[in-house]
Amino acid sequence: MPAQIIDGAAIARQLRELVAAEVSKLKATKGVTPGLAVVLVGENPASQVYVKSKSKQAAETGIKAIDHRLSETTTEAELLSLVQKLNADPAVHGILVQLPLPSQIRSAEILRAIDPAKDVDGFHPINVGLLATAQLEHALVPCTPLGSLILLKRHLGTIEGLNALVIGRSNIVGRPMVQLLLNESCTVEIAHSKTDDLPAHCRRADIVVAAIGKPEFVRGDWIRPGATVIDVGINRIAGSEGKTKLVGDVAFEEASKIAGAITPVPGGVGPMTIACLLANTLTSACRHAGVKAPEWTKAIRA
Questions:
Q1: Which pLDDT does position 302 carry in this prediction?
Q2: Which of 57, 64, 98, 119 is labelled catalytic?
Q3: Closest Cα partner for 158 from 265, 264, 35, 297?
Q4: Prior bond of 271 cis (ω within 30°)
Q5: Active-site pick, 57, 64, 119, 121
Q6: How far apart are CA 2 and CA 256, in angstroms?
């Protein structure tokens, strides 16, 4: 029996609708309009498309998108100065500096300079520490892992006690994903490029989250029958007739014959990332206004 396809685009739409409703409520009760500042340095084409999509979706939910476009020659000091201004601006509740940055700017220095309470990417060391110590009521959680968890809980309901394998140990996806799964009382294993006999580890997992950045790396016969597969990878490879196509880190056609459920690429985790960015912006605005923010992993249900 083929796997159920987890429709990330549809679930992201539900999340954006919920964000829009909560934004409207915050405006009506507190007179607060959530503000998201998006900073783009240079003219990276992929970043330009991504930033445009973020700003458009923010506006559609009632969040005020504040775009800052800086030249490729912007210095680290100039960018730090802008970040400090945004930190001090009460109309800004979320700050996102689009990565990658030009080579003359140290990304880590910029990310550390962002006010943790406005760090809607969830990359600041304080937010990382709050997540690691399960203090989620104070943290802002990285968007892709948060979106992946919402998809899991939307499909499975409770995931308590399940065996979960996270493939990839990046600070952006792998490590925070592990913490989120631990907080849900999963038994969690993290694997990476140096893991010995990775297929054997996969075959023990009820949940596989693939975020290793290698196209179709995880093969179908690695998947335990009935397992739920969350494919975070977005890789562009050669397609037919000289065109390119997007694929994930999982060999979808193979895995979908064995898994119980799987996210497609595109249309799976990707749409959830931007939706969770908007959710984080609203969370920050609620906290600044002294209002309890929604618990996003409990708010989206089948």
A1: 54
A2: 98
A3: 297
A4: no
A5: 121
A6: 6
DSSP assignment of 276-293 equals: HHHHHHHHHHHHHTT-PP
Residue 112 makes CB contacts below 8 A (sequence gap 6+) with 124, 125
Amino acid at 23: V
Is residue 12 within 8 Å of residue 45, measured between CB atoms? no
Task: Map out the domains of the chain as residue ranges.
Answer: 30-115, 143-270
pLDDT average per 10 residues of sequence, the chain (302 residues) = 94 97 97 97 88 92 96 97 98 96 96 98 97 95 97 95 97 97 97 94 98 96 98 91 90 97 97 97 98 87 60
Q: Kindly give, in sequence order, each residue whose CB lies less than 8 Å from that of residue 2, ignoring residues fewer than 6 positions away.
A: 256, 257
Domain 30-115 identical in fold to domain 143-270 = yes
Are 280 and 141 a contacting pair, CB within 8 Å? Answer: yes
Peptide bond between residue 225 and the one before it cis (omega within 30 degrees of 0): no
Per-residue pLDDT tens digits for 196-231: 999 999 999 999 999 999 999 999 999 999 999 999
| Cα dihedral 95, 101, 105, 111 sign | positive
CB hemisphere CA count around 117 (13 angstroms): 13
Q: How far apart are CA 228 and CA 208, in angstroms?
A: 6
Where residue 62 falls (left for φ over 0; alpha for ψ -120 to 50; beta otherwise) is: left
Residues recorded for the chain: 302
Per CATH, is 143-270 categorized as 3.40.50.720?
yes
Q: Supply the CATH classification number for the domain 30-115.
A: 3.40.50.10860
The CA angle 188-198-164, to the nearest 5 degrees, is 20
The predicted pLDDT at position 301 comes to 67
CA 27 to centroid of chain Cα atoms:
26
Token pair, residue 167, equals 């493939």
Q: Is 121 known to be catalytic?
A: yes
